[in-house]
Amino acid sequence: MKACVIHGAGQVRVEDVETPVPQAGQVALSFAYGGVCGSDIHYFQHGRVGDSILREPMILGHEFSAAIAGLGDGVEGFALGDKVAVTPALPCLECEYCQRDLTNLCTDMSFMGSAAHFPHCNGGFASELVVEARQCIKLPSDADLRHVAMAEPYAVALHAVAMAGEVKGATVLVTGAGVIGQMCAVAARAAGAERIFISDIAPEALERSKGLGADAVYNAADIDEMRKLTDTPICDVVFEASGAPSALNSAIAATKPRGTVVQVGFLPPQAPVDLNKLLTREITLHGTYRFIDEFAEAVRQITTGEVDLRPMISADMNIADPDAVFARALEKSETLKVMVHFE
């Protein structure tokens, strides 16, 4: 079979690897579509994502859809050819947090396409692969597998909205107009938010945001423009999706008293942030990490047509030329989500 394997920073190749055989409780899959994520890009650029450092070759990818190609012993509820959504998360189900249904905080998590543990956990960018059957959600026969491949990042956004609490009727600001920021806006709208504002430093990103349904956009590089949000704060909830310390400062400044800020993007290890307004306005600051049961909800909303994330797909590319794929993904001014396939 073919697989997209990362060996180190800038060293990614499509290689022939041994085809796995499903064991008891597992299913074999035929890859359909996959989305290139920010973490894939970090591995490509730096050979690491935070403290997750590549120490051996690893198959990339954790956003993908597939079809059932084989069944291990004891697997029920699936048939050959079934379309499936696949969560990359495989929590242990035994630790304290799993027992409290906080599986995203599992202390022994296996997450596809991650170098957090050694040996690394291979990802899903392979023409054929094997996963646990419990990672799969059977889809309707007419499901759009290209669209379903966006369920994982949308689940991240749904979890962020859940961490914010009630957003129905709220005025919401999203700082950072990348894929996750745009999906936070969609998820907040689906949860009943009344007004959605988006800020970013890139004019091209703001133009895209207008087309994707933002009620207003703000250039975060323009101090005077941002003062429209911060001089008299009107935002009930802010999702900080850029990971920039300056954006978190703006997020806090734009939040009303007793409002909520949800930090979605990863901040640098030492981030200069002014937290005084957390006290004087009694603002709640939440972290958010991956997702719990929101993956199934993301799949449901996508397959029922409640949300349409396809306008965020900027390119469909054959992964046979991974350097070209990552070059396109790195064109941030023109690209949101790059979707890959093996055909």
TrEMBL record:
Species source reads Paramylibacter kogurei
Q: Which residues form the Alcohol dehydrogenase-like C-terminal domain?
A: 180-302
Similarity-based family: Belongs to the zinc-containing alcohol dehydrogenase family.
| Location of the Alcohol dehydrogenase-like N-terminal domain | 24-140
Q: What is this protein called?
A: L-idonate 5-dehydrogenase
Under the heading InterPro entries, the entry gives: ADH-like_C, ADH-like_N, GroES-like_sf, NAD(P)-bd_dom_sf
Q: Does the keyword Oxidoreductase apply?
A: yes
* Transmembrane helix listed as a keyword: no
